[in-house]
Design a protein that fits this description.
The protein has 384 residues and is of the alpha/beta class. Helix content is 41%, strand content 16%.
Length: 384
Amino acid sequence: MSKKSTTPTVFITGPVGMIGSQLVRLFLKESDWNIYILLHETASEMTLTDILRSYCGIDEPEKYTDRVQRFHGSITKKHLGMSKDKYQHLIAEVTHILHCAASTQFDLPLSEARKINCDGTAEIIALAEKCSNLVHLGFLSTVYVSGKRTGEIIETVKSENSAGFANTYEQSKFEAEQLVASRVDTLPVSIYRLSTVIGHSETGVVSHFTAPHQTLRVMYLGLASMIPGTPEYTVDLIASDYSATTIFKLFMAGASDELVFHIVSGKNKSYSLQEVIDKSYAALAEADPEWKAKQHPKPTIAPPESFSLFMETAREANNPLLHNVLTALESFAHQLNYPKSFSTRNTENVLPTYNEEVPHIQEYYQKVVLYCVKTGWGKKSQHG
């Protein structure tokens, strides 16, 4: 019997992202599957072994290169920007798809966010519909497709959100979910919704510095005089390695009658907003004694009206650095005005020990902060 008929082949988009890179590692280490990865043309000069070592943390990548094929293109282009032969090769060989690629910028214009997160998802669905041997399509999303809704968010796809959204990232991912959910009768699909991925639970490594990390940077620069929200708001942060492991386990369990799975820490394993501020300042002081000596005051937690006034005043200051860092804070922080919790019933049905095993944020938050400071939020090597 041919290798094609016996060995699954998974096509992974976003394979060098915070989650995608660890999924590649898991498939190589924990399965015998063949792996196809979609890379931007900008990565064309890197060797496959360099990609596996640098992004996926594989110590001896040459042991695995025979199971990995790289494809260059873009999710925003028709046929993923590939030649006809390459695209036909995917159609013939791919049995599983994990769509991890996305823009996680919160402040993109809606049209740009849609181009990547919606149009890109549509292209992956188009590929999936052509794959005659497709077994499962997994789509990475965010629990914040819930937008400005409050209370308990259950694992289901809503057709509309009258509450609105805090930023364009949330809205574009909500709309992308609609595309995936519309194929539930014709494709074996699953949606994996993540809360805020903060860093690796063991090493603290952050491969992509997103809005939460930039908010920490605002604190480090002494510019965070005010944050919107309420002190008791639960800030659900989750480790990148645990997120990837959970997705891997859910995906390997196969498509099911349930469409949506939440991957979150939950209230009992998270900090409140006030605790995040307190723990951030304690961790920054531990990481940098010179910063500690400056004794930057902690930000005040304020209602949204006060925060909006603060942002308006900050913009009038016409300080480019202040503008850039506060824009990152604003696009993320508005979500803090809408307290909510996330059901994990579907996830627990497949993984009964999920809530017991998810690590508490206190186990690794300081490691993440230290990594941010040591690397200058990604601007220098860890040893720089």
